[in-house]
Amino acid sequence: MIVAEQKPLAEIRQMIKGHRKVLLVGCGSCVTVCFAGGAKEVGILASSLRLAAQIDGDDLEVTEETVLRQCEPEFVETLRRKVEDADIVVSLACGVGPQTMVEAFPNARIVPGLNTKFFGRVLGPGVWTETCAGCGNCILHLTGGICPVARCSKSLLNGPCGGSVGGKCEVSPDIKCVWQEIYDHLAVQGKAENLAEIIEEKDWSTAGHGGPRTITRKDLQI
Amino acid sequence: MSFEPEIIGFCCQYCAFAAADLAGAMRLQYPPNVKIVLIPCTGRIDIIHLLRAFEDGADGVFVAGCLEGNCHFLEGNIWAKKRVIYTKGILDEIGVGGDRLEMYNMSAAMGQRFAEVATEMTERIRALGPNPARKHKKIEAAEVAVEA
Prior knowledge:
The complex is a heterodimer of chains A (222) and B (148).
Chain A: E1 2-6, H1 9-16, E2 21-27, H2 30-33, H3 39-56, E3 61-67, H4 73-77, H5 80-85, E4 88-92, H6 96-104, E5 110-112, E6 114-124, E7 127-132, H7 148-151, E8 168-169, E9 172-176, H8 178-188
Chain B: E1 7-12, H1 16-25, E2 34-39, H2 47-55, E3 60-65, H3 76-94, E4 101-105, H4 111-128, H5 135-147
Parallel strand pairs in B: 1-2, 1-3, 3-4
Helix pairs in contact in B: 1-4
């Protein structure tokens, strides 16, 4: 999933300053699962904004909405009347959400309520970790299903660097050396010898360094 | 006129609510500022319930659950404790102040303790003064009264 976290309340308040009718729009997908921008978090933010406005004596009207997927125009379209009625919209979605909203409602003022962090998974309750770098050219079949692009601090492709000590990365003792994990995993499978094969230099042209990436499927186009 | 705080106590039916009942049966004196909300377990408490209480004008809020290790649903009170700590942070960020929120643990037999908690919380909130988010609401109410 795409993992995000809410911006500090002070930053959100700064963005909506001078606007009276605020519409908060959550997203029912990734950011609901990572407790950053679902209906529940929209409610908590709305309540926080109202309380803060009451303290300052500001006249603030907060409306709450959550759509199933804020990254798709069809879902965002259902908000049209509410967006038109609002002075400003705070999107609690990943960075795709506000941009979909801007596209749909070019006259509306849309601001982000979240900081989008990474593609990740749940390590345990309340903990998420980066797991995929979205490099556009997957090599998991070569690395025991564990991604060194996302999970090695240097994105090394052929074994650990000299900073791997006791299974930990030199960057932080909280980071596991992913190459140790890859080795351990393949060793359990009896396939550690796979690591003797050199992974050729990776084609990074798919990794987004050449501008925004687009996928086109002619069979799906209307 | 001296400030009389309004305090909401979210009380678990298996312990604190029964303790409050016992305090009454024992004829113990405690401040009448505490309004009790019966909940099935403190694990039912969510951040939004606590914020809404402040939004609707409470000066202080407490959550009272079973003694740790004695939750009827095993660990509802542990979850509640974590949520109360997290919400204290939100209240600090908002400017209401995390000190206005507290978590207590007691058994159904601790009527005396409930009276102490009610007194302690009332004194704490009295010292902190009114919920800052309420001041403008009060002014509005006063204006309406004058106009009427």
